Amino acid sequence: MLSVKGVEKFYKKGGFFSRERQHVLKNISFECSQGECLGVIGESGSGKSTLGRLILGIEQPDQGEIRFEGANVTGRRARSGSISAVFQDYTSSMNPFFTVEEVIKEPLRLLKMSKQDMHDKIDVLLNQVGLSPSYRPKYPHELSGGEAQRVSLARAVAAEPKLILLDEAVSSLDGSVQLQVLDLLKSLRRIYGMSYIFITHDIQAAAYLCDTVMIIRDGQIEEKVRIEQLKDVQSAYAKKLLQMIIA
Ligand SMILES: Nc1ncnc2c1ncn2[C@@H]1O[C@H](COP(=O)(O)OP(=O)(O)OP(=O)(O)O)[C@@H](O)[C@H]1O
């Protein structure tokens, strides 16, 4: 479904006149099939969010290509309604002047529903993320971190995308709330059958949610393993990451 082939990405380093370039992603190739949850794990600066932006088509690779169901993701049509995203910073990713209802309604407009159907659908979505309809008129600043992230998820699943990219989506929530949102992600996946690309520095969260994890180091894929085989990782770096779970 999602196919990433030979992707290279460079960023300009230094000032405006500098010719120095930083090689941020190096020969990245992988596939994510329908319904799969793929974790992308790596330390800060390893290139995870850059890869996420390329998958969303917000930025373009310098080499290689990213295709979603055969179409290049840089074309709006390939991803419109098919790929959505949830980021870490839920307060800034939501328009502060929009109520919860308006936030969730935005992607639903793509579906050209009647007013009544839209109203009912918002209630269903709120219910699916564990919030009551009384949240409809609330503004983002009136929500806790966990509630805001639930609203972001309701918005992300609203148009029933085939793929949701989650970039550090649970990282800033504290322990028990993080677990609740991870459980919510599991249940939404059961309901909708979409794929997730779960970008995180937290191998523990990835191991809880994902079927497969891909470890990225210095812009390269170090290893890609099924969760059941996580304990058999080969590289020293992956072993070190794994010790962090066991510890
Ligand atoms: N727009 C940009 N312009 C220039 N350099 C950038 C840009 N975006 C990212 N970088 C650099 O690319 C490298 C990879 O950044 P990226 O944000 O993808 O890493 P990450 O693994 O997501 O890190 P973190 O977990 O801290 O978000 C970093 O060295 C960063 O400084």
From TrEMBL:
Tell me which residues make up the ABC transporter domain: 2-243
Q: Which SMART domains match?
A: AAA
Q: Where are the transmembrane segments?
A: none
- Keyword presence, Magnesium: no
UniProt keywords (A-Z) are: ATP-binding, Nucleotide-binding, Transport
Which InterPro entries does its entry note?
AAA+_ATPase (IPR003593), ABC_transp_ATP-bind (IPR050319), ABC_transporter-like_ATP-bd (IPR003439), ABC_transporter-like_CS (IPR017871), P-loop_NTPase (IPR027417)
UniProt superkingdom: Bacteria
Supply the CDD domains for this chain: ABC_NikE_OppD_transporters (cd03257)
Gene Ontology BP, a term: transmembrane transport
Output the Gene Ontology terms for molecular function. Answer: ATP binding; ATP hydrolysis activity
Family in the record: Belongs to the ABC transporter superfamily.
| Protein name in the entry | ABC transporter ATP-binding protein
- Recorded source organism is Paenibacillus mucilaginosus 3016
